[in-house]
Specification:
By secondary structure, this protein is mainly alpha-helical. The chain has ten helices and four strands, in the order H-H-H-E-E-H-H-H-E-E-H-H-H-H. Strands 1-2 form a two-stranded antiparallel ribbon. The protein has a two-stranded parallel ribbon with strand order 3-4.
C-alpha cells in the first residue's frame, strides 16, 4: 500500500471499501463481491506455511515500515525515508536490504487495537479478541495448525505448530481447540554451542540403536496395559508415540540442526538467540 493513497487512483479508497462492505465485519453483500474482486481482493490464499516473527517491545513503526516522510522531524524522528523497488512505497533508512524486496511482501497500515497495555494488546493481536476470564481463544499458530495442518491433510513428521524458542503462554496457546494445536517449543538458546532441542536430539551418549531398544522394550511391557485399556485410548497413545519416535529417529530432527548451516549464513542472521 502506498504512503500517499492519491497516487493510486485505480485502487479503492478506504471510503469506497467501507461502502462496499456495509454488511459489516462478518459478511459482505453478494452484489458487492465483483466490485471487491475488481479492487484486487484475493479469495484463496496459496501460502503453505506461516512464519510469525513476534517483535514484542520491538522497534516502532516510524523506524521501520511507516517513516512518514512528510510529517517533519518532530513527528517522524531523525531517520529518513528511502524508496523501495515498488513505486510509492517507502521504508525507513534502517531497512535498506528489505527495501529491495518490497515486491515480495504486503504492508497492512490499517490494523489497530484499542489497548495501550502490552499484555492485553499482545493477546488481541494473537487471538483477534479481547481477553476473557472464562475462555482462552486460540492463537494464530494454533488456528494455522488446525486449518492448514490437521484439517488440511498435513502428513509431515514435524509438529504443525512450532514455537522458537519459548512459547508465549496464553498468547500462543491452543485455547479451546484440540491439544494437538499446542505449540511445540524448541527451548534453549540456539546461539549456544551445545544447543539441542529437548525431546528430539538425544542426550550425549544415547545412540540411535539404544533408542530403538528402548522403544522395543516399551512395546513389550505395554502388552498387558493394552489388554486392560480401551482401544481408543491405546490408538491415541500409539499415534503420539509413533510421532515422537519419528521425530527422534527420523530425518525430521535435521530441521533443528544448525550445525548443517554455513557459518556465513548464520553470521548474517546474527549470533543471538533471536537471530539463530
Amino acid at each position: 500500500m502506498a504512503n500517499k493513497p492519491d497516487q493510486q487512483t485505480s485502487r479503492a479508497s478506504r471510503r469506497d471499501f467501507l461502502r462496499t462492505s456495509t454488511m459489516g465485519a462478518l459478511g459482505l453483500a453478494l452484489a458487492d463481491w465483483p466490485t471487491l474482486k475488481a479492487f484486487g481482493a484475493t479469495t484463496d490464499g496459496k501460502a503453505k506455511s506461516v512464519i510469525q516473527l513476534w517483535m514484542g517491545g520491538g522497534p516502532p513503526h516510524l523506524d521501520t515500515f511507516d517513516p512518514k516522510p512528510g510529517a517533519g522531524e518532530d513527528y517522524a524522528g531523525p531517520y529518513k525515508a528511502i524508496p523501495t523497488n515498488v513505486p510509492g512505497i517507502q521504508l525507513c533508512q534502517t531497512l535498506p536490504l528489505l527495501a529491495k524486496q518490497a515486491d515480495k511482501f504486503s504492508i497492512i497500515r490499517g490494523m489497530t487495537h484499542p489497548s495501550n497495555g502490552h499484555e492485553t494488546a499482545t493477546y488481541i493481536m494473537q487471538t483477534g479478541t479481547l481477553p476473557s476470564e472464562e475462555l482462552v481463544y486460540p492463537s494464530v499458530g494454533a488456528v494455522v495448525a488446525l486449518k492448514k495442518g490437521y484439517e488440511g491433510g498435513y502428513k509431515g513428521a514435524l509438529p504443525p505448530h512450532i514455537a522458537v524458542t519459548t512459547p508465549l503462554g496464553r498468547f500462543n496457546a491452543a485455547g479451546f481447540l484440540d491439544d494437538r494445536c499446542r505449540p511445540f517449543a524448541t527451548g534453549g538458546d540456539p546461539s549456544a554451542k551445545d544447543f539441542r532441542v529437548g525431546g528430539i536430539v538425544p542426550a550425549p551418549g544415547v545412540t540411535t540403536e539404544r533408542l530403538k531398544e528402548r522403544q522395543t522394550l516399551l512395546q513389550d511391557l505395554d502388552v498387558l496395559h493394552r489388554q486392560l485399556e480401551d482401544d481408543r485410548v491405546i490408538r491415541a497413545m500409539d499415534s503420539y508415540q509413533e510421532k515422537a519416535y519419528s521425530l527422534i529417529l527420523g530425518d525430521a530432527k535435521k530441521a533443528f540442526d544448525l550445525s548443517d548451516e554455513k557459518d556465513e549464513l548464520r553470521d548474517q542472521y546474527g549470533r543471538t538467540r533471536f537471530g539463530q
